[in-house]
Amino acid sequence: MKTLLIVYHTGGVKTAQMAEAVERGARAAVDESGGVKVVVKRCADAGPGDLLAADGLILGTPENFGYMSGMMKDFLERVFYACEGKVNGRPYALFVGAGQDGSGAVNSVERIVTGLRLKQIHDPIIGLKDLTPEILEKCEELGAAFTTGLALGVF
Ligand SMILES: Cc1cc2nc3c(=O)[nH]c(=O)nc-3n(C[C@H](O)[C@H](O)[C@H](O)COP(=O)(O)O)c2cc1C
């Protein structure tokens, strides 16, 4: 069975709501297609073993001070050398909760996951200001598409 790992941090509510929408979409797709285990963890609770066991990864972080959140950076620091060379080519995607920008969080995460040789399979989703139903729908679609792709082995 394939495993989808969703790892996120939230300092408030926005990125958590985006994570819930991604998970909702993923679990709905599991019900339809089966064959994928969905694991959701906060950054503080996730480690190298989770990433090594995953066939695909979706990351979620707020943008803080023009960068990913400190907790996401801590997660990536803890997994990088343990996983470097062992997860090459695995698919990943990213969602960001931000106030008015989000590009700093996207760029900082992309730099690191490029070093892990993960393969981006979806454009980053950035939720600005107040979350809209459209953004939450995009998050759900991401979870569903990622899960279906894993089930079908298309990545
Ligand atoms: C310490 C701090 C720094 C922030 N820096 C940025 C920033 O650089 N760019 C931006 O667009 N929003 C920034 N924000 C706004 C957050 O990204 C935004 O409120 C986000 O929705 C928080 O997500 P959360 O509710 O999941 O914690 C910052 C917020 C905090 C608390």
Q: Would you spell out the secondary-structure blueprint of this structure?
A:
Layout: E1 2-8, H1 14-33, E2 36-42, H2 48-52, E3 56-64, E4 67-68, H3 70-83, E5 91-98, H4 103-115, E6 119-120, E7 125-128, H5 133-152
Helix pairs in contact: 1-5
Bound molecules: flavin mononucleotide (FMN).
Question: TL;DR of this structure?
Answer:
The protein is α/β, with parallel strands linked by helices. The protein has helices spanning 14-33, 48-52, 70-83, 103-115, 133-152; strands at residues 2-8, 36-42, 56-64, 67-68, 91-98, 119-120, 125-128. 46% of the residues lie in helices and 25% in strands.
Report on the structure:
The model has no long low-confidence stretch (mean pLDDT 97). The chain contains five helices and seven strands. The protein has helices at residues 14-33, 48-52, 70-83, 103-115, 133-152; strands at 2-8, 36-42, 56-64, 67-68, 91-98, 119-120, 125-128. The two termini are 15 Å apart. Helix 1 (14-33) runs parallel beside helix 5 (133-152). With 155 residues, it is α/β, with parallel strands linked by helices. Strands 1, 2, 3, 4, 5, 6 and 7 form a seven-stranded mixed beta sheet that branches.
Q: Which descriptors would you attach to this protein?
A:
5 helices; 7 strands; binds flavin mononucleotide; 7-stranded mixed β-sheet; 46% helix; 155 residues; alpha/beta
Q: Sketch the topology as an H/E string, one letter per element.
A: EHEHEEHEHEEH
State which percent range the strand residues make up.
Answer: 25-35%
- Please estimate the helix content: 40-55%
Number of strands: 7
Characterize the main sheet: 7 strands, mixed
Radius of gyration: 14 Å
